[in-house]
Amino acid sequence: MANIGQPKVNAPQPVPDKAIFSYPTPIITDTIVREVHDTYGQPYVPLAYGTRYNDVEHTSFTISLPDHQLAYQGPAPGDPSGRMVQRIWVNPRANSDSYNYSQKYADEDPDYPIIVRTKVVKRLEYEPLPPLTPDAENPDNLLVSQEMLNQTDPPEINSLYVTIVEVYERIPGPVVTTGDFDTELNMMVYTDRQSVLSTNEADPSTNPLILELRETPRSKYTKARITSYLTDLPASKVEYRDGRYPFPTLLFDIVTTVVELTTGRSEVQVEYDDRAAPTAPAKFRVTTSFHDEPPPEVDVYVLGIQDISFRGISYQLGINNVLSDEITTEVQFVADDRYGDLDEGKTFAATTPSATEYQDEIIGTYKIVGATIDRWRGAIWTKIVTEVYMI
């Protein structure tokens, strides 16, 4: 409600050339000095920015401010006459590292603060710091970013001053671990992410279960290292498949019989006691195992098949790719019209295994017929063993 009947009170007018101090920082020697200059009766002659306070006449208000320089001059606020000029004088700020910081935390880890320093410095005197300079108050944190902004607080002083933003991080940074379930391996795969210096060389040998290690630059001086790894070797896996396999023919004996055709003439009859090679599909068992060093080699089961071949005068033999027992064939002719007195034959050694051993001991078992040892990923090796069910 208005104060009816009370006299109007005018706001006090600033005293020309009287220094008014403000304190923008916790360091009380950092001051901003404002004054108004009365130009009554004469035109205002602008001063050069950077002019020292002590080099200018200030009428009867004489104080010494040897470090203050002119940063702004313009119309005085609230002056209806238009003859008052406001002048702002500023001195360089001292020891701003003690108060000019804000702080956040890398990946929310309080042991890894990110320090952001906002400094107000003289424009012409600013020189960027060397990258990775340690922070003045926290030497474990290194300079990773710096930027000059053409703005100040208060804004009037940006004729002489600029704002510098410096970011300091602790390098290497925290290790952040994530995990993903690998359905093929049926286990968790973990990934570590960490910021390190660009000069930091990775050493994959520290973890033999590393699957992948990659680095991407964050800047010229830092990089992000991403490492995927297992905490244990994957369990062995067994798979079954159908396919083709050259199962052997089994030859147990060869029976040769002399058959008389007509009086005085005979021929040899040959009969094979054998089992023909199966034509059914083979069943394979494939076992994949994982190792943190090259695994030992595997002996592959080999069938010692042979060819049975004999070209005699009275008879011939020919059967290929067989497992056989020891076999002896022999025939005799006496006063035969064609062969006369003839005694011929041949002994064939048993194979390994023999036909009887294969039938009694091998059929119904799995035998290794192939093995592959190879580097899988990183320093992890795989051994893939293929077995066939013998029939």
Describe the structure in brief.
By secondary structure, the chain is mainly beta. It has one helix at 355-362; strands at 20-22, 32-38, 69-75, 84-90, 101-105, 113-122, 141-149, 161-170, 176-182, 187-197, 210-217, 222-229, 237-243, 249-262, 265-275, 282-291, 306-311, 316-324, 327-336, 340-348, 366-377, 380-389. Helix content is 2%, strand content 49%.
Structure in words:
The protein has one helix spanning 355-362, and strands at residues 20-22, 32-38, 69-75, 84-90, 101-105, 113-122, 141-149, 161-170, 176-182, 187-197, 210-217, 222-229, 237-243, 249-262, 265-275, 282-291, 306-311, 316-324, 327-336, 340-348, 366-377, 380-389. It is rod-shaped and about 165 Å long. It is mainly beta and 391 residues long. The longest helix has 8 residues, at 355-362. The model is unreliable at 1-9 (pLDDT under 50). It has 4 domains: 20-90, no CATH class; 96-170, no CATH class; 176-229; 237-389, no CATH class. The protein has 1 helix and 22 strands.
Going across the biggest sheet, name each strand in turn: 1-2-4-3
Question: Per the principal axes of the C-alpha atoms, what is the gross shape?
Answer: rod-shaped
Tell me the number of structural domains.
4
Q: What structural category characterises the helix and strand content? A: mainly beta
- Which sequence of SSEs, written as H and E, runs from N to C? EEEEEEEEEEEEEEEEEEEEHEE
Give the N-terminus to C-terminus distance in angstroms. Answer: 111 Å
Instruction: Output mean pLDDT.
Output: 93
Give a quick set of tags describing it:
rod-shaped, mainly beta, 22 strands, 4-stranded antiparallel β-sheet, 4 domains, 391 residues
